[in-house]
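We now fix the convention by which a protein and its fold are recorded. These numbers are not coordinates but entries in a learned vocabulary of local backbone shapes. A record is reproduced here so that you can trace the correspondence yourselves:
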Amino acid sequence: MTRVLVVDDEPQIVRALVINLRARKYEVEAASDGASALELAAARHPDVVVLDLGLPDMDGVEVIKGLRGWTRVPILVLSARHTSDEKVEALDAGADDYVTKPFGMDELLARLRAAVRRAEPVGGDGDETAAVVETGGFTVDLAAKKVHRDGRDVRLTPTEWHLLEVLVRNTGRLVSQKQLLQEVWGPSYGTETNYLRVYMAQLRRKLETDPSHPRHFVTEPGMGYRFER
């Protein structure tokens, strides 16, 4: 049974989440502040954390940092904060996804299921992504560093490949602009979002069926990008 830790100080939201999650056979624990959340996480080792950023005793970002000090448990942020800067701060601290209040229960549950799936080991070396990732239109072979589309190799530049690899290894997860820039171009980068726009456009032209309406390389405006199969 999948264990979920819900961290929110709004009783009605906690109640709605607990009812919906238990109805779907999740085991649920709840905490109303950051300190209790960190204690429960250490004691119960949840499989996924649903975390509100606006807690009474500490900022939710501090809870994320506290968890990331010892665990890679998926963290799904749930918050009324709408500015992209605050969302990016949570993602850069180690959150895996972000749902803005008010939210639809179906969307939140789908995001939660995706977070749990991504955290499951795929065999072999534990946290290694599956070596071959297939979509409806193309195949990415991470081990061979090759991409196939319509039976042919797709020629990618080293930078295009590196960007693709980071996104594919985080399939379904929102990767912030800063994280992408630092992983692909280096730690001194973080604000050159024009680089990302240029290279994402190139990847879409080479791999998407309709680059102007991408299915696989999704932009989250002001925050980052998400690779979807």
